[in-house]
Known about the structure:
The protein is α/β, with parallel strands linked by helices. 40% of the residues lie in helices and 18% in strands.
Amino acid sequence: MEKNLAIPKNTLEVLRKYEFAFRKQLGQNFLIDPGVLDAIAEAAEIGSGDMVLEIGPGIGTLTRRLAAEAGHVVAVEIDDHLIPILRDTLSDLTNVTVIHNDILKTDIRALADEYNGGRPIRVVANLPYYITTPIVMGLFESGVPLSSVTVMVQKEVAERMQAGPGTKDYGALSLTVQYYSEAEIVAHVPPSCFIPRPKVGSAVIRLRRREVPAVRTEDPDGLFCLIRAAFGQRRKTLANALANAASLSFSKEQIQQAITEAGFSPTVRGEALTLEQFARLQEILTAGRENA
């Protein structure tokens, strides 16, 4: 069988051979554009000594491209119908390991230990919309050794990850991603590059892991809790959004006082604050509680 799976007729041949039916609940859309495969592989900056964790390899189209660059590719696939297909399409490759599991239940640190001696790994994936945020946040927050995360996601999600203060796309996801990494959209991908065609455009975004987080805080979990509360009621002022958040234990008076001490207008909204300003506000709130 022709191994260039990025050619549509070869993808269709594989799907027909195994009578594969797309499972809508898994958000399956397979790449059929060699140029996009090259863009992903180049953005991931893979070297011959790298271990790549691929999430959701599908029929192995991107896997083959990654294996040409990497020392080892570990591909984690949740759909049991795709496992026999992957055994077929990747049968000639000696540096690929396929694992049948849910990535959210996979011990990625153990994989890094087993296949990469615990050294930082590179993660590459074509992610469905419904699971993008849990996967990306889980990778960063779990402390898994990472060099970078290069993912194809829905275009609007990529824009949210990269967004800055004062824009409509800016929010809790932007701030959390940028706390851990430097985010850069490296390619836009139209629906025509997939089988079946999704209804919206996609983008490839590279998240380079920072050696140290973007801001210093004694309590990262508390910072993210504050940020989520600030955007939980986006149309409200920051003071009201924080005061109404059940996850926070500050009084409205404490919140208003901290906002003033931080140098903000009483009517400021969360979308106006930078990551550094949220960290400063958290510091003031925490100090106020300790001194109370």
